[in-house]
Design brief:
With 755 residues, the chain is of the alpha+beta class. Helices cover 23% and strands 30% of the residues. Strand 13 and strand 14 form a beta hairpin. Helix 6 packs antiparallel against helix 7.
């Protein structure tokens, strides 16, 4: 929420219960011993998002321990959880009234990882690609300051660790869970001895020597959990003890499988599965020579309604590399299954997108998934092994494996996709409110994801009295992955009213109708995901006029303004480095600079003098919001400082110069044109500026001082210069009517009557 303290407070009141509920659920699910809140909930944190996080965290810690708060979570299986210690940060600047009580050394090398946590943190910061936050991975002494806010355990005056006062050994489970007397003391001691013995005997060159030790530890932990079931304990104490022992059992099981060098690799024949299709899954287990492990059984876990049958067919070769003849895979054991997807299987997508949002909040089918990054894989293999007289079950997600000719082996989780997806080439039409029919083209795209040929028809659902030409169009797709497209002419009637109207694309195949588009989220550093959107477009009928100007656009960090200009019927050209350096800028009536071009386009910075000469000779330059380096590089034509922003999208806006041509030609702009805005008013406005700039608009977040540097105008020679920090890059793609009318006036400046 920008840099507004007032806005942060407003957002707290508006979102507190919803956000608090989610935080409490996360704490009750993962049961942390210590919580560290990076922020304090005060203006020391910086902007409002930080303040809100710092404000809510202590409230969540308190509420998580109170059975009466968010009791529906308790009814759904969660338990109250009391965090033992709460820490907070101390802000970005030293404050003598908020001194730290503990310094965590983050510059010490972790001998297992071979790096410091400071290096890892800086590497993580550099992954914020869209924020341009790349930094040096600093080495040497470094520390993070923490302040103890609350402790329910005896804490020394001078702490050396966040766990001071908390017994984190296995025997410490007794105190953490509240076991009475010496309950389970012998069992816990034996478990700890097994863990310590494994650590002391660990040889990375011969991990198999640990198998018998880890087997003993695993069996001892299981016996302790069994004994727990028959003890006279309260339900809460028994449940918390079992929760902690289950963690130790999982630790032993994972360590045992790794020490035994057991590799379980279930592979599926294809990545994308459409409803009704069948495919093969091969569960392969690799054991080292003379392994003490024996394979007892394998199964495939699938969603309810799926078919899973053990196949008698010969096991297919899952290595599709052209060099596979040199690298034959010989598993110790393999079972092949035929998996069939039910005809009504829903598409696989992130669980938080399965239901429509309620306002800005996700709705979940399964509340227990709160805090999880994604749902569990749809297919998992369970392999049961035997070692040292006990059985061990190992779960592994089924994966699709393929070879990329450049990157090598890649793996993805299988997903269910619809038989076909349908989409539109544009999600927005801008239709001027005029007294004659308006015609625009719209293209429907359809793609098949099924192995069988599909044939059907494409059509558009339009507002009343609107017409599509043709009314429908047949399509035929022979194979999986094939796609085609059809262009329709949409005719809006002459007698139309202003407003927003819906256009929906449909693909009909026999009795089924498909109305969703597919977007693939695919990057090398993350698992591939697919998300689905209704195949809809909004047709905005707007009382809009625009002068016939030729516009050049300097793309910054990326936005959709050129598409918005095209929707208004404007001839827009994207200006590349060569044109900025040597092209004839005077061929354009108006040049628009994209957001953050001063960061993303060194050629824009290098050719800024040419752009100022273009303005001086009569051109119009519209500069959208930039960050502070726009000022630090002396790019504004006259002195200015910048930082301010207004984050309340409903903040009142006052027109300071109502007679200025920006507000009179060709559209008459009023305060109503600021209705319906989304997310924010402006960002990185001028805070102070030279008298040669004329402020055009005034706004402010509630309780903040008026801001007049969000849009300023300067007459330079024969031309016009405008710096506008208002969030056009958000409003125009969203189809906000007033934003189109105002931006049309900005680019029409060279054609406006001059005072």
């Amino acid at each position: 929420y920008g840099f507004s303290k007032t806005r942060a407070e407003a957002s707290i009141k508006w979102n507190e219960q919803a956000l608090l509920e989610d935080l409490v659920r996360v704490i009750r699910t993962f049961r942390p011993l210590v919580v560290y809140s990076r922020f304090t909930g005060t203006p020391m944190d910086g902007h409002g998002h930080h303040q809100l996080a710092g404000y809510l965290t202590p409230l969540a810690v308190e509420a998580a321990a109170d059975q009466a708060q968010f009791s529906e979570q308790i009814a759904n299986g969660l338990q109250p959880w009391q965090v033992k210690k709460l820490y907070s940060g101390v802000g970005f600047r030293t404050d003598p009234d908020n001194l730290p009580t503990l310094h965590v050394q983050t510059g010490d090398i972790n001998p297992v990882i071979g790096r410091t946590y400071s290096e890892i943190a800086n590497e993580g910061r550099s992954q914020h690609k869209s924020q341009r936050m790349g930094v040096i991975e600093t080495r040497g002494p470094r520390q993070s300051a923490l302040k103890l806010m609350k402790s329910l355990v005896p804490t020394p005056e001078t702490e050396t660790s966040v766990f001071d006062g908390i017994d984190t050994t296995v025997t410490g489970i007794s105190v953490l869970a509240g076991l009475p007397g010496n309950t389970l003391q012998n069992e816990l001691q034996e478990i700890e001895e097994a863990a310590n013995l494994a650590v002391s005997n660990y040889n990375p060159l011969d991990p198999g020597t640990l198998v018998s030790i880890l087997t003993t530890g695993l069996q001892t932990t299981r016996l302790a959990r069994q004994a727990l079931e028959h003890m006279d304990l309260t339900d809460i104490v028994r449940e918390e003890t079992d929760f902690l022992l289950n963690i130790k059992e999982n630790d032993f099981r994972k360590a045992l499988i790794q020490a035994g060098q057991v590799v379980i690799d279930p592979l599926i024949e294809q990545e994308l599965l459409s409803p009704g299709e069948s495919t093969s899954v091969t569960v392969r287990t690799f054991l080292p020579p003379n392994s003490p492990f024996k394979i007892i059984s394998t199964v495939i876990e699938a969603p309810q309604g799926w078919g899973v049958l053990l196949s008698s067919k010969p096991i297919a070769n899952t290595n599709d590399s052209p060099f596979s003849r040199f690298f034959t895979e010989i598993p110790s054991h393999a079972n092949q299954y035929t998996v069939t997807v039910p005809t009504d299987a829903p598409p696989t997508q992130p669980y938080f997108l399965e239901l429509p949002r309620s306002g800005d909040r996700y709705q979940l089918r399964d509340q227990t998934q709160t805090g999880m990054p994604f749902s569990p894989p749809i297919l998992q293999s369970i392999v049961t092994l035997e070692v040292g007289g006990i059985q061990v079950k190992v779960s592994k997600p089924v994966q699709y494996r393929f070879a990329d000719s450049v990157r090598g082996e890649l793996r993805r989780l299988p997903m269910v996709v619809p038989s076909v997806v349908v989409g539109l080439d544009s999600k927005l039409l801008i239709v001027p409110l005029e007294g004659f029919p308006n015609e625009q083209e719209m293209t429907i795209r359809v793609q098949s994801f099924t192995k069988q040929p599909v044939a059907g028809t494409l059509n558009l659902k339009l507002p009343k009295d609107w017409e599509a030409i043709p009314a429908n169009e047949k399509f035929y797709l022979q194979s999986k992955g094939e796609q085609t497209s059809v262009t329709f002419l949409i005719r809006a009637p002459a007698s139309r009213t202003s407003g927003s109207f819906s256009i929906t694309a449909e693909a009909k195949i026999e009795q089924a109708t498909y109305k969703h588009d597919l977007q693939v989220i695919e990057y090398p550093h993350i698992q591939t995901h697919r998300i689905y959107w209704p195949a809809k477009a909004a047709a905005k009928v707007i009382n809009l006029e625009v002068a016939q100007v030729k516009v050049g656009y300097i793309m910054g960090s990326g936005d959709q303004i050129p598409e918005a200009l095209s929707r208004m019927g404007i001839n827009v050209s994207i200006l590349d480095e060569n044109f900025l350096t040597s092209g004839n800028l005077s061929t354009f009536d108006t040049i628009v600079v994209g957001v953050r071009a001063s960061e993303a386009r060194p050629d824009f910075v290098a050719n800024h003098k040419r752009l100022m000469e273009y303005v001086n000779d009569g051109g119009t330059l519209i500069v959208q919001y930039q960050q502070t380096n726009y000022v630090s590089k002396n790019l504004p034509p006259f002195p200015a400082k910048m930082r301010s922003r207004v984050t309340d999208e409903t903040a009142p806006v006052q027109i300071l110069a109502p007679d200025h041509q920006v507000f009179t030609f060709p559209n008459h702009i009023t305060s109503e044109d600021f209705d319906g805005w989304i997310q924010e008013r402006n960002l990185y406005a001028f805070t102070t500026f030279d008298d040669r700039y004329k402020p055009l608009l005034q706004t402010a977040d509630p309780g903040e001082n008026p801001q007049q540097g969000g849009q300023v105008y300067a007459k330079i020679g024969k031309g016009h210069y405008v710096y506008t920090a208002y969030a056009w890059f958000r409003q125009l793609p969203a189809g906000v009517p007033g934003a189109y009318r105002m931006f049309a006036n900005l680019i029409s400046l060279p054609k406006a009557p001059q005072p």
